Amino acid sequence: MLNLPNLLSITRIILIVPFILFLIHQRYGWAIGVFIAAAATDAIDGALARLLRQRTQLGAYLDPAADKLLMTASFITLSVLQFLPLWLTFLVILRDVIIVLGLILVRLASRPLEMRPSIPSKLTTFFQLATIAAALLSPWGFPPVLINLFIAVTAGATIISGLQYIGKGFRIWKAAGV
After folding, report:
1. Is the pLDDT of residue 70 over 90?
2. Among the listed ranges 77-81, 87-91, 173-177, which one has the minimum average pLDDT value?
3. Global pTM?
4. Both ends of the chain: CA-CA distance in Å?
């Protein structure tokens, strides 16, 4: 069902294109504005879905997909433009690939799947967003030492969260008797 929360998730996906184009053309202020707008749709769509009781199956897939597409596009573009190290982008994407492969394996084992983000996962998302924001602010003199700190914390949180998901996947797989 296409409702307002789902339309906001679709809007977030569409905003990826101007965000990338503004970055490529060094229109950093506009890029930040579009990124903030995209992030706002994430907060608003979830709140509206709960408030209006418009949670849908489509929204359950569309919202996290929009989030991952925005994050992945941000990390890739910021790495290509050398605002962030390529190894960090690889690490962030690897974690997401591992999670998706784990979800597929759990589904293949016909195990019930509860998709609730853990506290380490939420912290990872927070630090990934903070790292993107710091990189976006670097043309205005955001301190490189703080960017490097965000990069290090994001890498650590990404690894910890990824290992947690792997452990959870193994427990589910083992409980399935596979």
Report:
1. yes
2. 173-177
3. 0.88
4. 36
Q: Is the dihedral of CA 66, 107, 125, 90 positive or negative?
A: negative
Instruction: Please give the pLDDT value at position 114.
Output: 63
Mean residue pLDDT across the chain: 88
From 71, 91, 89, 113, select the one nearest 161 (Cα to Cα).
Answer: 91
Q: Is 116 in a helix, a strand, or coil? A: coil
Q: Tokens at residue 49, please?
A: 């879905």
Q: Please say whether the beta carbons of 136 and 146 come within 8 A.
A: no
- Tokens encoding 41: 């749709």
52-73 burial string, b = 16+ CB within 10 Å, else e? eeeeeeebeebbeebbeebbeb
